Amino acid sequence: MNGLPGSPRLDFASDNHAEAHPAVLAALAAAAPGPAPAYGGDRWTAAAEAGLRDLAGPAAVPLLVFNGTAANVLGLSVLLGPGDAIICAEQSHFAVDECGAVEAMLGRKLLTAPAPDGKLTPAAVEAVLERCADVRTPRPSTVALTQATELGTCYTLRELADLRELCDRRGLRVYLDGARLANAVARLGCTVADIARFADALSLGFTKNGALGADALLLMAPGIAVRAPYLRRQQGQLASKMRFLAAQVGALLDGGLWLDNARHANTMADRLAAQLAPLPGLRLAQRVESNAVFVELPRAATDFLRPRWAFHLLPTGPARLMTSHATARADVDGLAEEVRRSLR
Amino acid sequence: MNGLPGSPRLDFASDNHAEAHPAVLAALAAAAPGPAPAYGGDRWTAAAEAGLRDLAGPAAVPLLVFNGTAANVLGLSVLLGPGDAIICAEQSHFAVDECGAVEAMLGRKLLTAPAPDGKLTPAAVEAVLERCADVRTPRPSTVALTQATELGTCYTLRELADLRELCDRRGLRVYLDGARLANAVARLGCTVADIARFADALSLGFTKNGALGADALLLMAPGIAVRAPYLRRQQGQLASKMRFLAAQVGALLDGGLWLDNARHANTMADRLAAQLAPLPGLRLAQRVESNAVFVELPRAATDFLRPRWAFHLLPTGPARLMTSHATARADVDGLAEEVRRSLR
Amino acid sequence: MNGLPGSPRLDFASDNHAEAHPAVLAALAAAAPGPAPAYGGDRWTAAAEAGLRDLAGPAAVPLLVFNGTAANVLGLSVLLGPGDAIICAEQSHFAVDECGAVEAMLGRKLLTAPAPDGKLTPAAVEAVLERCADVRTPRPSTVALTQATELGTCYTLRELADLRELCDRRGLRVYLDGARLANAVARLGCTVADIARFADALSLGFTKNGALGADALLLMAPGIAVRAPYLRRQQGQLASKMRFLAAQVGALLDGGLWLDNARHANTMADRLAAQLAPLPGLRLAQRVESNAVFVELPRAATDFLRPRWAFHLLPTGPARLMTSHATARADVDGLAEEVRRSLR
Amino acid sequence: MNGLPGSPRLDFASDNHAEAHPAVLAALAAAAPGPAPAYGGDRWTAAAEAGLRDLAGPAAVPLLVFNGTAANVLGLSVLLGPGDAIICAEQSHFAVDECGAVEAMLGRKLLTAPAPDGKLTPAAVEAVLERCADVRTPRPSTVALTQATELGTCYTLRELADLRELCDRRGLRVYLDGARLANAVARLGCTVADIARFADALSLGFTKNGALGADALLLMAPGIAVRAPYLRRQQGQLASKMRFLAAQVGALLDGGLWLDNARHANTMADRLAAQLAPLPGLRLAQRVESNAVFVELPRAATDFLRPRWAFHLLPTGPARLMTSHATARADVDGLAEEVRRSLR
Prior knowledge:
The structure is a homotetramer. By secondary structure, the first copy, chain A, is α/β, with parallel strands linked by helices. The first copy, chain A, has helices at about 20-30, 45-55, 70-80, 95, 100-105, 120-130, 155-170, 180-190, 190-195, 230-235, 245-255, 255-275, 300-305, 330-344; strands spanning about 60-65, 85-90, 110-115, 140-145, 175, 200-205, 215-220, 285, 290-295, 310-315, 320.
């Protein structure tokens, strides 16, 4: 069930290719029978929201949505004042992968900063502020971070604190795209709350981490929650049968399955990186700090691997190898073996 | 599992309160294991799209989305030229229930027409055109119909043909909101294609008809499909793990389950109406042509029923009683009995 | 120079048809020679803004724009939070005359209330709030008034105070469309500040009152001005050669010309109404409280007048006769005479 | 009247700082007396539109607007299909100077290409198409050129033909920002039509070329004009007293004043460049092909000049010296002399 027969193996192409976790399916089956209030008035939603508050802090206001783009758009729409612009890393998912959703749905300009390792720095933010200092550019009011980043790296808590300090000083809000926040939490050995406290709003992704399709937005700043339920519906993200989003989230929160899943994915990435790093003629392009391995391969190696394994090649060169909750140790070892062969 | 203990019974409050069909859950479980291409490159999506073309015609281009608001916004965004406006019935779901999604996401003005039975007429459309004849009003370019309507009625094929003829003559496109199209097909004894051929784009709802959450947009007019995949992603409606939308749709298409479900819901509405209609002091407010019974009740009857059953009261007075694929004959008879008691 | 030869006389068709005041042209000629800073850094802009603060109060923040639609859109964009909706009278200019500018440029839904005399009442506002009480409708956050109204009437200061009190109580902001505010000020014998204090933002129109084309937005609520200059540019309303908007406003502010012009227009409307009111077979449809006379005429009279005079007929029946700063007494008497003839 | 006393001289800071041409003021005074139809039904508008068709070709559809941002937004809104994106040079005015107007008012993403001399090339356009080849990026459908460019250079007719050929081949439309088209026409010794035939829509600026504030949009592609009048009103760009935009345009078209003005500005730029080019320690950063001279100066020279003359410094270093219809020969020689002093 791995793509078409004879097609490349999908295992490391994307964590979006991964299967749904059996516990999630079981929870859906359990939630299905009988009528339940629509639009979030059900007990599964109440439980999932409570679980999310347990993670992020009692003042967090959680909203379930269908996917990560939706969480980003909803989160930014809550934070941005009229006409404001967003400062983000040039690789941000919503800057390059979401088909202009922020521009189209929110009418906002993205002010991008270079981020060679995927991470914004205070200096990079300051540089954007400096070049956007009059009405020729829309007013930057929100800095958007991604944790873990698009390049598989993680901001340390110290780095997040420094960025937050800058933002407070310059009157900027912080949005954090946490499509892979679980992997960052697993890597840093911290809690969701440890990261969430630096953000005014953040997403927490479940889709890539074992769900069929469900992500959460968490509103942290006081007073910003009043409009969010309206915006969610306006943006087409209010599930009528919300219990079926909530049951997925509930299953993953239950017993910390979300964290186990993320830890496993990270461990598989580490295992892969450990086997690849020593190989001559190959270079890890980024530090491995979540569930992604970016590796620069000789052209011949790439040509050898492409018909066998599906993976992305960045425009800048490196191959991206993603692991997930469902990645098997044997698959990692199998891929590493084929990379070794490709280099001969 | 019917709301909180002691709370009103939900059975007739909304078809969105209904359970998911077991066949849908089984299909999800079957689709879950192993990796699969993301974003619709999987075989479940291919199968669901083929099934939808079987229903609507070989030239139809289907796109799966998360819910009905999304299908409406996506469908309208494909049809509308720059700055164009929409003509619709005053009760249209996107005019009164979707929190201004069309205005917010598409920047469009809705030009509403009165529709006492939920159905637009050629005369009503002409009247809007007449009052919107210069640049003070945005140019109406698309007529949006709902089938079955918000008031539980159905356009006949003759009525649809007449509206289409008017629209062709006046250079207008036709969008059809088919959140409950299945119920209309079941009622009219026609096919989806019989209705779809009058529309340039239409939605086909599964969420209210047994799914957990999945709706389809069907593009019928030649040449309009090129932008739709971009718009779907831009609007936050591209499921990364699309197989889990597709498996739901596949399960409902399989063996005509979608039509069986709709037939059952309609039959239950008929059964309810048949028991209520003869009662003195009560009046059916609309013809029962799908899975909704609108009934005018004396105030005392309403007061008696409200603590026992959840149902909507229209601003204009009537109570709305919805049936679904999961409505049991005994529940219908039970409700009818309580209505009889309420009238004593 | 009154339309094409043989075409109907334009004098009472619209105050937008009126000539520019000679003092405005003189001011433009005086401002023209030599270089001056662009985008509002010039001394004419400084003077016009100072003059506007003299009218509206020292805390008012004025912004010049090209026309009334622009002032409305800019003013509302400053006041509305994400996704919020607007409560307004059904005849509001931006609801029926501005081609969906608010929907298109701001993505907002207008929640209209009936207003038989053009004026919103607290009860009408409350009724909208009641029918918009959950996420199915976008959150109303701003009430938009028009002073003088589209039907030529004026809110009294007492009525404005009552509406403001309601809005404060319900957490609503107030926008006031003052395209003809001068006429209201002249009628009420009050100051601009007397009205402006009830609004969070308001426009003050000069185009209909002697300018070539220039209107002002006045921001009254503390703290809302920071984004306005950005929004003005974003919305295409920042004049590069701002001195030529400012010189127009300056000329009209100078010596109270704006108020003299409005008084004259009002007086001409009164003179017209006084001659028409006693005529049998004719009825004033609205009280004459600014520079508009709405009059119900027999069909035969309308048919007699239409080839001779340009005027609007409301969909609801009455003819609209507008006066302006340039209306001559003899023209009023001439029109009145022809109306008398039309009724014979 | 050159800024504040003691402040730097404005003469070369921007063509937006230039005075209005006396012929324009005379035309306004002539158009002012008496009533005239609003919203473009007047004879000045008819004459200006006829004059614009004389320039651009009989099939051109002209629309007057208030400024260049408005013309860009309106022109792009006419050309772009739902969700489409725009390919443009990184320095495009609407990409960096218009406060995100395209994003905010049209919800569009700008796909920028490097253009060291301000000019897009077919190769640069192809490179954008290549990196935007799936739904992760909105569909590019329109290439936007600027003529003369932001860097004072001009596309040759050959270069425009090559870009048009590419766009035809790839199904792309062409928008041309002609805020300084007059200067390009003067430089190339061609006609407006010679350039306009390569565009589907283009703007023709008058504000920087002697008007108080008036620009034109010219629609060239057949069939695109139907929505433009609606969009103009929707975007707040329909002047109620249109005669006062039209009279400005008419005065500049009359006897080719627009071209004389542009020729003069170009000649002054040439004269300035001729004096600066031979100076040691100074480098012209761009070819001088319109009314701008970009020159790299030593830091000491810049420091010497800044308190005496207002001019822009690009982020990349060079100073921008703009000439206009009102630039005097003596001012050019005076500035050149001071630059010489600054280099000593």
